[in-house]
Amino acid sequence: MKKPTLDLRPPEAEEHELKRNLSNRHIQLIAIGGAIGTGLFMGSGKTISLAGPSIIFVYMIIGFMLFFVMRAMGELLLSNLNYKSFIDFSADLLGPWAGYFTGWTYWFCWIVTGIADVIAISAYLQFWFPDIPLWMPAISCVGLLLGLNLVTVKMFGELEFWFAMIKIVAICALVCTGLYMVVAAYQSPTGNTASLANLWNDDGMFPHGAMGFFAGFQIAVFAFVGIELVGTTAAETKNPERNLPRAINSIPLRIIIFYVFALIAIMAVTPWRDVVANKSPFVELFVLAGLPAAAGIINFVVLTSAASSANSGVFSTSRMLYGLAVDGDAPGKFGVLSKRAVPSNGLIFSCICLLAGALVIYLVPNMLDAFTLITTVSAILFMFVWSMILLSYLAYRKQRDSLHRASKYKMPGGIFMVWVCLTFFMFILALLALQEDTRQALYLVPAWFVVLGISYRQLRQKRQEGMQLTFDAD
């Protein structure tokens, strides 16, 4: 028997809608790009100094939990191919308010993350051009990403493909270099010998105890933001029944290869106490290996990683605005597609917000404090979106259990694992409250939801007034 489907598209959108132009090659690399954040390249030094070798378990635990979030998202998207993204299924299963809050929060997530990325790109370019004003590369970067994304969705797919490929090559090179140095028993100038024993020889795997282990979660979770990006490509994916499961199922293997193996290679070559918190351990390992151009090469890799994240932000925010506009939760102009089936108005608006935010941040005296605040706010908002995906799954199991039983791509662990993941996110929030620099973000985030609540209430009132006027006219 054919499964019932709910067609969420308005009649006028059927002839002019998002096109399925992203192939399996694009989807696989978009998923990899989403799973490998800039935080791995630049933030891993700080996480190692906080947690020591136990940081390996931190990344594995976060990756393990997010895999179930992605599986829940995958089952929901494939239960109804008219769902364009998680906005649609959250609105359908939890109510219109959920689609409104999820869509606008996800838009804001990527604007906040994109601001950090654009500033990072400007800072990385100063490695080669120290005299260039910071605002110039910021404007150039946003302008370039806007221009490329206005062409076609396939252009976004190609950009992400090559950005992700650069990250993969860099990490594989690091793992292979570290393995060679361990096998060759390389001895550093400070007298340390490369060996796997470095992971447990210096006060064990948990040198700072439980608090040091927990402290690693605060920064590590930001490295995973964007892992759900594959869910925003659902409406533009060729053969989603085959390609979405492939991309999601390979997440555990990616976490092991790109996070765990990379961290093991770093700490096997350089004992964790010698890893400098404010430097990229990727650069340090290649310098030890005798590669004098390491700083320039890794600077290029991190630059492309930040560009990849900014590119993802530009893409996903425009698709969120499109979905919100189609549902009547954003201005109608954002629901208009160009001749190339691209939501150009949403792209332009997101890029303006991105650039304005980046230019304002330049006025903040302490750039490090600004970055800590931005990344923590971003991580909290992303956890809200991940939680909405899980809550949608709970509603789906309650309301559409027949669809779940008929599904060929069921979430393993089901309802039990949903509650495990939600409890884990609450645990992360509690950890963020322990440190003063991350606690500030917890004070700021509620203001965003107050604004959303007020705007949603006003939107409802306008709709009710419009319906009443229509009724009176009849």
Automatic annotation (TrEMBL):
One annotated Gene Ontology cellular component of this protein: plasma membrane
Keywords, sorted A to Z: Amino-acid transport, Cell membrane, Membrane, Transmembrane, Transmembrane helix, Transport
Highest taxon above the source species: Bacteria
Chief location bin: membrane
Protein localization: Cell membrane
Protein's membrane topology: Multi-pass membrane protein
NCBIfam families: PRK11049.1
Protein name: D-serine/D-alanine/glycine transporter
Lineage, opening ranks: Bacteria, Pseudomonadati, Pseudomonadota, Gammaproteobacteria, Pseudomonadales
